[in-house]
Design brief:
The chain has a domain at 61-148. Helix content is 74%, strand content 0%. The chain is built from 6 helices and no strands. It has helices at 3-12, 22-37, 43-56, 63-82, 86-119, 131-146. The radius of gyration is 19 Å and the shape is flat.
């Protein structure tokens, strides 16, 4: 199996942990119990790990999106704490734009892709793919663009 096909196969594997599922009924009490049993200064690590696990229960590869936003928000928080005046507002705005930007890409990519494909059907024959088929490529693009 070629590497790309294997990556798509792994990316398509997932199970759901809905709020009304047995999996969530087991996960949530354990998460809450350990949260209160841990010393206060370690609770954030437990919440981060639990949140990542819960997020990965749907589509594991999407954890990369979560890590991207975690890093952006963490760095922005440190920068905002050290900044003064208007610079703080600019940093907050950049953090919000980054988060909303990721959301907008994953929410509206398929909509824009389908409509542009329909409008340009005569110029570009062939089927264009949806985001769910190529999200690893898009995530790579997001990470490369965020470093420039």
């Amino acid at each position: 199996m070629p590497g790309g096909a294997k990556a798509l196969q792994l990316a398509s594997y997932h199970y759901s942990m809905l709020f009304n599922s047995i999996e969530f009924a087991v996960f949530f009490p354990i998460a809450v119990l350990f949260y209160f049993l841990l010393p206060y200064r370690y609770r954030w690590i437990w919440l981060l790990a639990g949140s990542c696990y819960f997020y990965m229960a749907f589509i594991p590869i999407y954890i990369l999106i979560l890590f991207f936003t975690i890093i952006i928000d963490y760095e922005a928080g440190i920068a905002i704490e050290n900044a003064r005046g208007r610079h703080r507002k600019w940093l907050l705005a950049l953090s919000i734009i980054a988060n909303v930007g990721v959301l907008a890409v994953f929410k509206y990519y398929n909509f824009l892709n389908e409509n542009l494909s329909f409008l340009l059907k005569g110029f570009c024959p062939g089927k264009s793919d949806s985001l769910s088929e190529h999200h690893p490529a898009l995530l790579g693009f997001l990470f490369i663009r965020s470093r420039q």
